[in-house]
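Internal tracking record. Fields below are filled automatically when a chain is submitted to the structure queue. Please do not edit lines marked as system-generated. If the sequence contains nonstandard residues, flag them in the REMARKS field before resubmitting.
Queue: standard
Priority: normal
Entity type: single polypeptide chain
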Amino acid sequence: MKKNIAIIMGGYSSEYEISLKSGQVVFETLDATKYNGYRIHIFKDKWVYVDADAIEYPIDKNDFSVRVNDQKITFDCVFNAIHGTPGEDGYMQGYFELLNIPHTSCGMYQAALTFNKRDCISTLKPYGIKTATSYYVNLGDTIDENAIISKVGLPCFVKANKAGSSFGVTKVYKKEDLLNALDIAFKEDDEVIIESFLDGTEVS
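SYSTEM-GENERATED OUTPUT FOLLOWS
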């Protein structure tokens, strides 16, 4: 008997369009001989299953099920293709764990911790794990450009503290560009982290 797989995509952040593309790739790649794939769009105003004809069916959030042609469909596993909130910050993980529905993400705590760059760095430091030099700014704070550059140097990276890596990130080469980079980051989050530039190869 084929398993029902919910592929959740979309999300509440600026990365939703990228997430929809990622989710579609997963849907098209899923082995149809073994699994029934369901594209589930997660947005602030609606959670819906979207069928092959682009017809939308509302998701029952009480148990994460959907009713199609008077048949209730439940899911054996959730493939999380959401970029940013609520797919990477612990919200969806906690929701599915409460419902005892297996999902492809890490756990709620790990997701929430690693999504918040500042909290993650604070957790790593006691273990002697090296991280970039960082400076934190909250929305509404007085911006001391000289203090920032004195601590992190140039070039540096300005990032939204709680967001993915596709939006709200700017590499700053000159002091004159710092305020604009902060404005970009604040469009994604009310907390910003500014980090020193590390020259190396990214490994994940």
